Amino acid sequence: MYAFEIDRPASLADAVTALGAEEAQALGGGQTLIPALKQRLASPARLVALSGVAEIKGICTADDGALSIGGGTTHADVAAGAGAYPALAALAGNIGDPAVRNRGTIGGSLANNDPSACYPAAVLGSGATVVTTNRQIAADDFFEGMFTTTLEDGEIITEVRFPVPEVASYQKFEQPASRFALVGVFVAKYADGVRVAVTGASEGGVFRWSEAEAALSRSFTPGALEGLSLSGDDMISDLHGTGAYRAHLVGVMARRAVAAAR
Amino acid sequence: MPEVSMTVNGKPAKGQIEGRTLLVDFLRDTLNLTGTHVGCDTSQCGACVVHVDGRAVKACTMFAAEAEGAEIKTIEGMAEPDGTLHPIQAAFREHHGLQCGFCTPGMVMSAAALLAENPTPTEAEVRDYLEGNICRCTGYHNIVKAILAASGQDVSRIAAE
C-alpha cells in the first residue's frame, strides 16, 4: 500500500467536511477497498473511514412501509435485522464469509458497484431509492456501468430505501474462490409488476432483464421464462465462464428465483 | 504519526501507527501478539481472524486506526491465565483439529464467534461458518468435529478421518 492519512469522523457532517480534502476517498467496511489498496489499484492521499458514523447505521421501517437501511450497516446486521424483507436478509447473509459480513457495508458495496456484487441486484430489483448526503437517487438512475455510479465526489450513501415486495428471491451461482456471483438474479413481485435484476453477467454491470419482467408480470411462474434467452455477446467472459455460459445461467437462476420466491 | 488505543485481551494497548497500518500488523509488530497469523493477506484464508467488539473480523482487512476504542480479542486471550486451554482449544487438541497449526488461531476465533451466536450448530452450519477459513492440512473433518465437541454435542459416532 502507498501511504495515506486516515480520518475517522464521528458524525456525518464531519465526514462530509473531511471528504472535501484533496484526493480524499470514503472507506466503508473496506472489504473491497483495502485489498485494492494493497494491490496499488487505488492511491488516495486520505481515507475517511465511515465506521465511526453511528447515524448511518441501522434498519427501520419507514412510514410508507419501505425498509430503510443505513448506508453504514454491515451485511451481518442486514442479514439479522431485515426480517421484514426476507429475500434481502438472505442475500446479505450469503455475501462473502462471516468475517467479511461483519465489516462490509451496503453503502460501500453500492458505491463500488462491482459487476459481480450481490447488493446492486437487490437495489435494482427492488426499485430501491439510494439516499445520499445530497439527494435521493432512484435505483434505475444510480448504476452507470462496471464500478461506476452517479455518485459525485464526496457524496456519501446515508440510507437505502427498499419497497417491500409481495414475494422475492435472490439466487446466486457462486464463484467458489471469490464467493462473488458468477451470475446472480434477483426477482421481486410487486402489486404493479415484477422486477428482475441480474448481476455478475454483463460487461455493463447490473441490469434489468425487461423481457423476463414482462413475462413474469403476466404469469409469475418459472414456466413463463421458457423460451426467453439473452445474448452472450455483451456478457463477461473469463476463465470462470464464457459469455454464452453466463447468458444461459441467467435464465436458469431466474427460473430458480421465481420458484423460490416467498 | 497518530496514536491508537484499544483494549486487547482485556488490557489497554496503544501505539504509534501509520494510516495504512493494518490491525494485524499492529497486533503482531507493535504488541508482539504473533499468535494471529497472516496467511494470504488478501482476506481469503482467515488465519488472521480476531474478535473486534465481539465479532469475527479479518485483521488483515481492517486498519488499526479503525480499532480506536475497540475491544479486541486474539488467540492469546482464549486460554485462562494459568494456561488452561479454552474449551474450543482443548477440543482441537483432543480431536486432532490441527496438523501444522498455521490456520488454527483463525479457526478457533471463528469457532468461538460461531458458538457465541449459535451454541449448538449442526455440522452443516459449522462448515458454512468456516467458509472464510482455509486449512491446507486437515481436510476440515477434525476441525468440524472439534467444534461440534466444543459445543457439547456428542461426536463419538463421527468417524475419525
List keywords for this structure.
heterodimer, A: 262 residues, alpha+beta, Uridine Diphospho-n-acetylenolpyruvylglucosamine Reductase, domain 3, Enolase-like, domain 1, 2 domains, 5-stranded antiparallel β-sheet, 4-stranded antiparallel β-sheet, 10 helices, 24% strand, B: 161 residues, Ubiquitin-like (UB roll), DNA polymerase, domain 1, 5-stranded mixed β-sheet, 5 strands, elongated
Specify which chain pair forms the largest interface: A-B, 29 and 29 residues
The amount of beta strand of chain B, in percent, is 5-15%
> Which bin fits the share of residues in helices of chain B?
25-40%
**Beta-sheet strand percentage of chain A?**
15-25%
Radius of gyration of chain A using CA atoms only: 18 Å
Rg value of chain B: 16 Å
- The CATH class name of the largest domain in chain B reads Alpha Beta
- The mean pLDDT of chain A is 96
Unreliable sequence segments of chain B: none
* Assembly context of the chains: heterodimer
Descriptive account of the structure:
The complex is a heterodimer of chains A (262) and B (161). With 262 residues, chain A is of the alpha+beta class. Chain A has helices spanning 12-19, 33-38, 75-81, 86-92, 98-101, 106-112, 119-126, 139-142, 210-218, 243-260; strands at 5-7, 24-27, 46-49, 59-61, 67-70, 129-132, 136-138, 143-145, 148-149, 157-162, 167-174, 181-190, 193-199, 207-208. A five-stranded antiparallel beta sheet of chain A has the order 4-5-10-6-7. A four-stranded antiparallel beta sheet of chain A has the order 11-12-13-14, with helices on both faces. A three-stranded parallel beta sheet of chain A has the order 1-3-2, covered by helices on one side. In chain A, helix 3 (75-81) packs antiparallel against helix 4 (86-92). The relative contact order of chain A is 0.12. Chain B has a five-stranded mixed beta sheet with strand order 2-1-5-3-4, sandwiched between helices. The relative contact order of chain B is 0.16. The mean pLDDT of chain B is 95. Classes of the chains: A alpha+beta (262), B alpha+beta (161). The interface between A and B is medium-sized, with 29 and 29 residues.
